[in-house]
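go over both lines:
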Amino acid sequence: MSDLVKEGEEFLRKLDELGRVKRRWVSKDEEDTDPRYGYPPYRRPIDLYIRKGLIVIDKPPGPTSHEVVAWIKKMFGLEKAGHGGTLEPAHP
């Protein structure tokens, strides 16, 4: 088994531990990821997460969706950011 496969299995075990899930993982294929086609999630550079990722926010009452997007842009030094749907909390 390659080191990359071992790292991947360890990553999955840690996720299970954090989520308090007990399951058995089986590797069907032990081929390494070709670096020309991406990265394993635990090795992906943070700038790729920022440029091509999503940030899930549980927005508290108070700030507007527009304000939250502006904060995210400032925090990560982004030129462009937006939101999908409403960020307003549900009212009971």
